[in-house]
Amino acid sequence: MEDNAALRDLVMGHLRARGFTVDAAISGLNALQAALSASFDAVILDLGLPDMDGLEVLRGLRSSARGDIPVLILTARDAVDQRVAGLDAGADDYILKPFQLAELDARLRAVLRRPGKRLQPVYRYEALSFDTASRTARHHQAMIELTPREAAVFEELVRTGDGIVVRDALCERLFGFGEDVSTNALEAIVSRLRRKLSAAGSAIRIESMRGIGYRLKSG
C-alpha cells in the first residue's frame, strides 16, 4: 500500500524474489478494501496515501473482522508523536524512509513471528519441513530447491498437514489481483512439486481432492 510507483515496484519485486505473493493498492480506500476482501499474511502500509490517511486505513482495519493482521508502517514521518500515533492506532512496527531492504525483511519477519500471528518459524509434517524465515524446504535435512510459487504451495501443504488445502485459497495466495489465472496454472505448479518431492526420496505424496484442493498423504 504505497503511492510512490518506483518505491512500490522496488518493494514488490524484492518481496516476490523472497517468495512472497504481493498485491499493491495506490490509494487509502483501495488499500482498505483489498485488506478486507482477501486473506493476507501481513500489510505494509504507507501513511501518506491519497484520499485517506494511512492511520485511517489502519483504524478501519483494526476495527474489522480481519483486525489481527500484522501491519508494518512505512513512512517518512519521523516525529516521535507521529510514530507513537501509528503504534497507538494498532501498528505492529514501523520503518522510516529511506530504508534498506534488509531492514524491511527483518522487520517483516519479526511481525510475522509474533504470538497469535499466522506464521510460525518452522512448519513440519513428518520428514518434511518449511522454514518461513529463510523460505527453505527440506526433506529430513536435505534442502529441496523450489521456485517461489512452489515454495508457497509447499508451505501451505506442510502447515495444513493431513488437512485439505483448498484450491481457491491457494490461487488467492499464489496470484495477485491483476494476474490471469488459468485453470491449469496451479496444477502445473503442484505437478512440478510432486516431481521434486519424489526426486528428494520422499514417500509423502500430494493427493488431489477432486474439485476441492490438495493434501499430503504418507506412503
List keywords for this structure.
alpha+beta; 8 helices; four-stranded antiparallel sheet; three-stranded parallel sheet; Arc Repressor Mutant, subunit A; 219 residues; single chain; elongated; Rossmann fold
- How much β-strand is present in the residues? 15-25%
CATH architecture descriptor of the largest domain: 3-Layer(aba) Sandwich
Radius of gyration: 18 Å
SS content category: alpha+beta
Number of helices: 8
Q: Based on Cα principal axes, name the global outline.
A: elongated
Report mean pLDDT, rounded to a whole number. 82
**What's the name of the CATH homologous superfamily of the largest domain?**
Response regulator
Q: What does the main sheet amount to?
A: 4 strands, antiparallel
Number of strands: 10
Order of helices and strands: HHEHEHEHEEEEHEHHEE
CATH topology of the largest domain: Rossmann fold
Helix proportion of residues, in percent? 40-55%
Low-confidence stretches: none
Structure description:
This protein has helices at 5-17, 28-37, 54-62, 80-88, 101-113, 148-160, 167-174, 185-199; strands spanning 43-46, 71-75, 93-96, 122-125, 128-131, 136-139, 142-144, 165-166, 205-209, 213-217. It is α+β, with helices and mostly antiparallel strands. The protein has 2 domains: 5-113, Response regulator (Rossmann fold, 3-Layer(aba) Sandwich); 122-217, Winged helix-like DNA-binding domain superfamily/Winged helix DNA-binding domain (Arc Repressor Mutant, subunit A, Orthogonal Bundle), CATH 1.10.10. The strands form 3 sheets. The protein has a 4-stranded antiparallel β-sheet with strand order 4-5-6-7, with helices on one face. Strands 1-2-3 form a 3-stranded parallel β-sheet, sandwiched between helices. Strands 8-10-9 form a 3-stranded antiparallel β-sheet. α6 (148-160) crosses α8. The radius of gyration is 18 Å and the shape is elongated.
